[in-house]
């Protein structure tokens, strides 16, 4: 006979209890920053823009959905603090450290706490009759609005770009990939939640 802890519902209950402890929250936040750092290193520089193509936003959205608005926000603030101290958590196609937090991609980086918080809040918003996956896709879209708004706005200000140049350098090239990343994050989140509630 399986023990309660080894059954899916037992594991889910243990996971939920772990998330409520201070130690659990700290471990999850650090693990979340590790996921974002790994995804930052899966990076492809593009010759026509200073913004590389990375998997970071996928990780940020997934972290926000999984941890919730407060813990997701806190994890991303921790991630930025790690990068500011010089830890190699940002994409390697940049100067790293404080310099990266002042360069062309700074707006994208500083959007991450807000993006994670918005994804976590929207996916948990009460009253929605949409499926878990649909809510997660919508949450990813809202998070992406923050990412593109702050990222493109910062780049436009830094490089004195007009609206057309900003669109072509900071938004348009990344939209197809962002759609894939949102769908993947929503699929992983909804699958985990289905398992957790079974």
Automatic annotation (TrEMBL):
The chain crosses the membrane at residues 26-46, 58-81, 101-123, 135-155, 167-192. GO terms for molecular function: biotin transmembrane transporter activity. Keywords: Cell membrane, Membrane, Transmembrane, Transmembrane helix, Transport. It is found in: Cell membrane. It holds the Pfam family BioY. InterPro entries: BioY (IPR003784). This is Biotin transporter. GO terms for cellular component: plasma membrane. It comes from the Bacteria. It is a multi-pass membrane protein. Belongs to the BioY family.
């Amino acid at each position: 006979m399986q023990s309660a802890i080894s059954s899916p519902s037992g594991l889910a209950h243990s996971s939920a209890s772990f998330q409520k402890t201070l130690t659990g929250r700290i471990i999850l936040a650090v693990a979340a920053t590790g996921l974002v750092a790994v995804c930052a290193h899966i990076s492809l520089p593009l010759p026509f823009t200073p913004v590389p193509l990375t998997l970071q936003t996928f990780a940020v959205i997934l972290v926000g959905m999984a941890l919730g608005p407060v813990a997701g926000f806190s994890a991303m603030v921790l991630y930025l603090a790690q990068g500011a101290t010089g830890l190699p958590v940002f994409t390697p196609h940049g100067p790293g450290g404080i310099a990266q937090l002042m360069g062309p991609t700074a707006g994208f980086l500083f959007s991450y706490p807000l993006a994670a918080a918005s994804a976590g809040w929207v996916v948990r918003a009460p009253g929605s009759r949409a499926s878990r996956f649909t809510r997660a896709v919508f949450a990813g879209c809202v998070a992406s609005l923050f990412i593109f708004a702050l990222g493109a706005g910062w780049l436009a200000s830094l490089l004195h770009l007009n609206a057309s140049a900003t669109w072509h350098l900071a938004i348009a090239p990344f939209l197809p990939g962002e759609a894939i990343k949102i769908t993947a994050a929503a699929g992983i989140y909804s699958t985990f939640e289905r398992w957790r509630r079974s």
